[in-house]
Structures are given as C-alpha cells and as structure tokens.
Amino acid sequence: MENIKSPRISAQHPDRDLECQAALSEAFAELADRAAAAGWSDKEVAAALTALADNRMLGAAEIAKVEDLLASLKRR
C-alpha cells in the first residue's frame, strides 16, 4: 500500500474534503479489493466500510463534545 498524500490546501478550503477523497481513493480501493479477494462480497465490503466510517465519525463527534465540555469547565 502506497503512502497517502498530505493535504496541500488549508483546512478552511472548500475543496479540502475532495482532496482528502482523492488522497484516500487508491488505498480505499486496495482495501476493498483485498477484502473481496479474501472472499467478502462487494456488498459486504461496502456495508462494512460504511459502518466503520460512520463509527469513526460518531467517535470523533463524541470526542469533540468531551473536549468542549472540558474546555468550558476549565474556564470556570
């Protein structure tokens, strides 16, 4: 698996998400192909990757909530 390219545009740039998708595309396809080669159907792989992405997003949101709470407690 090749290295994933670092971002070249600022975090506030409106196309940052597209740049990230492009950077991850090859690794994502390779992971999906490896799972299919191991015997998982494309539908199973897509569902698993979607669930994993959702769980990561939910985890990040929870971490952000905790960080906001801690920051507000420190201000008191």
The total of helices stands at 2
Oligomer description: single chain
Total domain count: 1
Strand content: under 5%
- The termini sit apart by 48 Å
Keywords:
76 residues, mainly alpha, 74% helix, flat
Structure write-up:
- The chain is mostly helical.
- The protein has helices at 16-37, 42-75.
- The longest helix is centred in the C-terminal third of the chain and has 34 residues, at 42-75.
Please write out the topology.
Blueprint: H1 16-37, H2 42-75
Concise structural overview:
The chain is an all-alpha fold.
